[in-house]
Amino acid sequence: MAKGTVERSIENIFDGVFSRAFKSGVKPLQIGRRLLQVVDSERDLDAQGRRVVPNSYLVQMSAADREGFADLEGSLLQELTAALREYIATEGYHVEGKARVALRTNPDLRKGKFDIESRTVMPDEVLVPSSTIGAVGSVPLPPRTLATVVETPEVNAGALWVAPSSSDSPPAVLTLPGGQRIELHEGHYVLGRHLENDIVLNDTNVSRKHAEFVCAAGEVMVRDLGSTNGTKVNGVVVGGEQLLQHGDVINFGTAQVTFEAS
Question: Which of 26, 27, 187, 258 has its CA 20 to 30 A from that of 75?
Answer without folding.
Answer: 258
